[in-house]
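Field guide to reading this record: the first block holds the primary sequence, the second block holds the structure written as discrete tokens, and the final block holds curator observations. Each block starts with its own label. This record concerns Zinc ribbon domain-containing protein, catalogued under organism Methanobacterium veterum.

BLOCK 1 — SEQUENCE
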Amino acid sequence: MGYCSECGIENTDKSRYCSNCGKILIKEDNSKLKVKRLNLISICLGFAVWLIIIIFFTNIDSIIEIDSNLKAFEMFSALIIASGFTGFWVRNNWKSGALNGIILCFILSFVELINPGTYIIALPVYLIIGFIFGALGVKSSRYLKNL
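BLOCK 2 — STRUCTURE
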């Protein structure tokens, strides 16, 4: 049985077209490699988006005096946007987007733990944020595609 790369529905091996969305089915070997490559690219792009947002906030922080609560809000905002972006870029299924969000947030949680004043409790919170917003990124991508 093969899975559609567009909608994720299982199709028979002899099918040339998806029974759900009608897309031409690609051989499983190619599609798995393509999905792995896309997942890696989406995590790297999510990290780049996070880094750009943090650099932007750092430049603003140097101009304007900002308290620690607002800095924490900036960090969570960057994390939410970056993990949502990883899911948006993947477009496969919500599981793939959620996993990419978790991987990105896992990496970013260690970057955050280097900063003084960050607590270890940030790790599970980051993973939950990555899961939720990675999956929501996939859903928003599908929604915009159907407009």
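BLOCK 3 — OBSERVATIONS
The helical segments are 28-63, 68-90, 94-114, 122-145.
Residues 33-145 form one domain.
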